[in-house]
Amino acid sequence: MNYVAYFTCNKILNLAILAWVVAQILKVPIYRYTDKRWDIKMVFGSGGMPSSHSAFVVACATSVGKLYGISSPLFAISAVVAVVVMYDASNVRRAAGEQAKVLNYMMEHWSEMKPEILEKELKVMLGHTPFQVAAGAVLGLLIGLLA
């Protein structure tokens, strides 16, 4: 059976999407284990364990490496993109999440009138810890290798 024809007609893209979906679904039981409560919204959100961004790009790079070889220009491009995405997830987006925590604290303790723009709570879980990025990368690697 040619499963590629049933989704995107592209094996590499199918595997990357599969890695992303698996990572998003895994966030729910992992969040339940770590925070002791169920939150189905984790399936649709960013941040959390494992990193679906990492799983997505590493599954793509791994699949490209398997199909075209690790010395191919396609693998080089996909590996560079994977590194940039994982760096962004663990540094830039994580820093934005830390800033959101500080701003949320400031808004909760604002004693005078609040401007309208400060009434909405900011999203705290934007980025990933290095461990979450690594876990997503391992998940993507496994899905890319097992396909």
Automatic annotation (TrEMBL):
It comes from the Bacteria. The chain crosses the membrane at residues 12-30, 70-89, 124-146. Keywords: Membrane, Transmembrane, Transmembrane helix. The keyword Cytoplasm does not apply. It holds the Pfam family DUF212. The keyword Transmembrane helix applies. PANTHER family: ACID PHOSPHATASE/VANADIUM-DEPENDENT HALOPEROXIDASE-RELATED PROTEIN (PTHR31446), ACID PHOSPHATASE_VANADIUM-DEPENDENT HALOPEROXIDASE-RELATED PROTEIN (PTHR31446:SF29). This is Divergent PAP2 family protein. It comes from Papillibacter cinnamivorans DSM 12816.
